[in-house]
Amino acid sequence: MPTALVFDVIIIGGSYAGLSAGMTLGRALRNVLIIDGGKPCNRQTPHAHNFITQDGEKPGVIAERALRQVLAYPTVRFMPGTVVGAGREDGRFVVKTEAGETFLSRKLLFATGIADQMPGLPGFAECWGISVLHCPYCHGYEVHGRPLGVLGNGDMGFELAGLIRHWTPSLTLFTHGPASLTGEQQAQLERLNIEIIEKPLAEIEHRNGTMQQLRFGDATTRPLTALFARVPFTQHCPVPQDLGCTLKPSGHLNVDAFFRTEVPGIYAAGDNCQPMRSVAVAVSAGMQSGAFLNKELIEESA
Ligand SMILES: Cc1cc2nc3c(=O)[nH]c(=O)nc-3n(C[C@H](O)[C@H](O)[C@H](O)COP(=O)(O)OP(=O)(O)OC[C@H]3O[C@@H](n4cnc5c(N)ncnc54)[C@H](O)[C@@H]3O)c2cc1C
Q1: Residue 16 C-alpha to ligand 1 middle, in angstroms?
Q2: Range 124-229: architecture per CATH
Q3: For residue 99, which of 25, 15, 1, 172 has the smallest C-alpha distance?
Q4: I need a surface site. Which of 21, 163, 222, 275 has the fewest CB within 10 A?
Q5: Is 111 in the pocket of ligand 1 (CB under 6 A)?
Q6: Diameter of the chain by CA atoms?
Q7: For ligand 1, is residue 41 a contact (CB within 6 Å)?
């Protein structure tokens, strides 16, 4: 691929948001390069749900099908790789990959997602996306009515327990140490028949990610079908911040209603800039950001 070619847009991250933007821009006759590191956040989950027409499909199959459809547009190229840096030279963006290649573009779109930080609890990472679940809208239906748990404490644990209670009458809040709940919160959980267990956890015992039971520090156990938890995250890709893009207090990239970051010419879409994590939302953001990028390019050429 000749490095002197200036793409209209380089999309960094070629999962759901990036591929959706790629399709919109390809259909707008734009020269696009998508560079993707191949590590979407849902890669460990066996089935993706709540994305209409693809409900229950394997996440990788949805992405492969999307890539095939996007590459049907002749002005779109896709390259596996990791972007390690970017800068501006002569009004163009210069994008560098880990493999040492350099590409030029008029605009950048970061669709790079976030990286979930797994806690040190043995078994947690292995069960992530299989029986340790982040979202009831993605995975709640499959476990509804079964014995479920929420791992959390304080306001977050209280709110998540209240939400998950909708899917099962058999819910336990595991605070993994002394509960930091207000008296009113404790009373409300009791009214909802949600048990609170404060004992520290020692391990999630599982078979290939399917939870069998929780084992506590005192060696007692509790059988469980699934545990809902929210984990901290970092931006999957630090390059937007290197370029001057800022983060919201939540850790998401700051974008406006048009998916523009504060740095002219740089857009972001998908999990990296909004908290509602779902394939449908990422696809929507990708489509919208592609359209807004195209509009900006049209206006600049006028
Ligand atoms: C365990 C789990 C299960 C889920 N299950 C569901 C579900 O059932 N249904 C549903 O609707 N949603 C589900 N979600 C949410 C959904 O997967 C995300 O909302 C969606 O993947 C976000 O898409 P994205 O394109 O923004 O980011 P991602 O899909 O995370 O993709 C980001 C891409 O950018 C690439 N990238 C990052 N940095 C760089 C770089 N420097 N250079 C090149 N490439 C880079 C990554 O390798 C990756 O391919 C789940 C999420 C998790 C964590």
Answers
A1: 7
A2: 3-Layer(bba) Sandwich (3.50)
A3: 1
A4: 275
A5: yes
A6: 71
A7: yes
